[in-house]
Amino acid sequence: PAAGTPVATSTDALLGSLDAGGIRSRFLDIQAGFIDEPRQAVEEAGRFVDDLLRQVADALQQQRGQLAGATEEASTEDLRLALRAYRQFVDRLLGLAG
Q: What three-state secondary structure class fits 21?
């Protein structure tokens, strides 16, 4: 989007490409397997989290790419808006850590 285009303002929007319901459901399935096969369930959970981390990184990289395009041949006002969008992005990332 252009520098003046609003950027998502919530963690949900930041990671909107992820299917939270599907992720929770899949993890509950893995967790349910712990009763019969504890080691296998833990190993599967580890693989699942590795895959989830890749999905999160891809979603964040896509958002970062959108921000990067906002600064080419930009006016000072466009640059101000771009810097504000970067600040919001950083704030959302910090919200993931909370």
A: helix
Write the pLDDT tens digit of every residue in 25-71: 999 999 999 999 999 999 999 999 999 999 988 988 888 887 777 66
- Rounded Cα distance, 26 and 31, in Å: 9
Evaluate if pTM is beyond 0.85: no
* Count of alpha carbons within 13 angstroms of residue 62, beta-carbon side: 13
Beta strand extents in the chain (DSSP E only): none
Q: Is 68 left (phi over 0), alpha (psi -120 to 50) or beta?
A: alpha
Measured between alpha carbons, how far is 67 from 78 in angstroms, rounded to an integer? Answer: 12
Please tell me the chain's helix, strand, coil percentages from 3-state DSSP, rounded to the nearest 5.
Answer: 75, 0, 25
